[in-house]
Design brief:
Layout: H1 11-26, E1 34-35, H2 36-40, H3 53-65, E2 75-76, H4 85-92, H5 97-113, H6 117-127
Length: 128
């Protein structure tokens, strides 16, 4: 079972996690990527796409603590279709250039292929 750390039990983090999980689950065959802007839209609170990095980091570290791939790799820049600097800093700070993009692409595939996202979604929905 997925254990949600205390710093992820904030209403905003929970709402972002649920939206991201639902998107990845329902759009897996199309790639599952979502831009920072798309993720920020339609939330019950105002969220500047540039400020969503902190809640995404909390969600990804919760995944890491539970032995899961970092789902935040699926949140990308609308022009590059790659994660932002915060993702790279957290997951491959020692790697530069195209090598770090290869790591991100590999992680995207791991996230797409992970079959347990519905279970994680259920946990987040039940603490809401």
């Amino acid at each position: 079972m997925f254990n949600v750390p205390e710093d992820c039990k904030n209403e905003k983090v929970i709402e972002i996690a649920i939206k991201l999980l639902k998107h990845v689950i329902s759009n897996r065959k199309e790639g599952g990527l979502i831009t920072y802007g798309e993720l920020s839209k339609g939330l019950s609170f105002p969220m500047n796409p540039r400020n969503i990095e902190q809640p995404l980091g909390k969600i990804s570290f919760a995944c890491k603590e539970n032995g899961l791939p970092p789902i935040s790799v699926m949140v990308v820049n609308k022009y590059t279709f790659m994660p932002g600097a915060g993702f790279y800093k957290a997951y491959c700070s020692e790697v530069k250039g195209k090598e770090r993009d290869k790591i991100a692409i590999e992680l995207m595939n791991v996230v797409r292929n992970y079959a347990g996202w519905n279970d994680v979604l259920e946990v987040f929905e039940n603490i809401k």
